[in-house]
Amino acid sequence: MATVAISLIRPQTEKTRPPRALWVPFQLGRPFGPPAEPAFQRRVVLAALRLLERPAGPVIIEDFPDDDPREKADPSWRPPALPAVLADRPPSGLTAQLDAEILLLADLHRRWIAEHRRTAVGLSGLSMQEIGGYIDEWLHGREPPSPNDGFSPLLLLRFTADDLKAYCLEAGAAQPGKPSSRQLYDWFWKATAAGSALLALRHMLLASDSERVKLIAGNFLVPPPYVPSTARVATIAATSMGPWQPGQ
Amino acid sequence: MVRLADLPPAQAQRLAAFDCPNFTTEPWVTGPPLSQRRVAIVSSAGLVLRGGVPFRGRDPDYHTIPPGTRPEDLLINHVSINFDRTGFQEDWNVLFPIDRLNELAAEGTIGSVADIHYSFMGAAEPDLIEPHARELAGRLKQDEVSAVLLAPV
After folding, report:
1. What is the pLDDT of residues A19-78, one digit of tens each?
2. What is the pTM of this model?
3. Where are the domains of chain A?
4. DSSP for B46-85?
5. By C-alpha distance, which of A162, A127, A24, A224 is closest to B48?
6. How many CB atoms lie within 10 A of CB A170?
């Protein structure tokens, strides 16, 4: 079976030595380039497929020459207007603001769906109000039962966190303009109650006695670039409810 | 961008030093011209159908993306949070370039597009993925696929 791979991290491709690979200089998560740029995507796909016609190999690793134009910030984009996040509150104090924010972003999210006819929200199978309520329970130091028989509470926490991020990021992207991913993620983690809630939850759960809970909290809630510095952690710790305990 | 020189040094070092499988063979399969190839996508982005059974953690099996799947049907269920998802939220072709393949087939640049496409969750253990990948290769042959586009995330 003839294959051609897209390569995002060239040194890893050089180690695995697939028969044919096209290295692309795009951010992780965008192997075929920018969204809504079909001509650009076509060039990437075709550059990869053309490697199948090379008469000699292996190993062929070629470089795609062009950068993703959507990685540049769009100065015209403005994030949604939201109340300032009350960062000096304990984690449980974020729940009301999280619930209110989900409602505040609802119109923008409906606009996103109307324009794109899709949403990436849906892993948990819960409504956004239910997702907010489920994360609220964790913020209060409780481990709520999963309403989905197939998902453990921790698995559902990860899915609800992914859904919450998708919901907010889509709402933010519904604002006029073509924001870069960096603009959207900076806004989400630095200016939304949802981002603050997940940061607070991460910190709470890292104090758990359960290695499984610590694994999920440390690796699957907040991307490393947005994990607070030591000083920020100290601030949050001083205002938190203390270590999270199962069944608390 | 994923030019290692542009990343924070610690992250660049970690990615460059990442432990990768060491294959002892170097397969090389040729085939007909592109205009006669039947192309399938095999993604490692953890793509799943809305409402279906998701990947749980590092499940090593694969999910099927059947004919008629619409953009609103496809979700990303990769365990990692260290990559951009906003591109996929806006346009599934960022990870799953099915519209581009269909255009290339319609104009005759490629022969055809496979009926079924597939996704693994790429953070699974390679040794555990292997038997599923071998079984998948058999399915691809049954569908007369002659070119596989391997799409990471």
Report:
1. 999 999 999 999 999 999 999 999 999 999 999 999 888 999 999 999 999 999 999 999
2. 0.91
3. 5-71, 91-239
4. -EEETTSPPP-SS--S-EEE-TT--GGGEEE--S--SS--
5. A162
6. 26
CB contact under 8 A, A4 and B89: no
The angle at the Cα of A146, spanning A142 to A151, to the nearest 5 degrees, equals 130
Every domain of chain B and the residues it spans? 34-151
Peptide bond into A19 cis (omega under 30): no
Q: Are B116 and B64 in contact (CB under 8 A)?
A: yes
CA–CA distance, A34 with A144 (Å, rounded to integer): 39
Q: Measured between CA atoms, how close is A177 to chain B, in angstroms? A: 13
Cα of A166 vs its chain's centroid, Å: 7
Hey, how many other C-beta atoms are within 10 angstroms of the C-beta on A138?
A: 27
Is the CB of B5 inside 8 Å of chain A's CB atoms? no
Residue B148 sits at the chain A interface (C-beta within 8 Å): yes
What's the ipTM?
Answer: 0.95
Q: What is the mean pLDDT of chain A?
A: 90
Q: What is the average per-residue pLDDT within B65-92?
A: 96
pLDDT digits (tens, 9 = 90+) for A214-245: 999 999 999 999 998 753 444 344 333 333 33
Question: Which amino acid is located at A59 in the chain?
Answer: V
* φ/ψ bin of A196: left (φ > 0), alpha (ψ from -120 to 50), beta (otherwise): alpha
Are A52 and A2 within 8 A, CB to CB?
Answer: yes
Contacts with A, B 47-76, CB within 8 Å: 50-51, 53-54, 56-57, 70-72, 75-76
Cα A192 versus chain centre, distance = 14
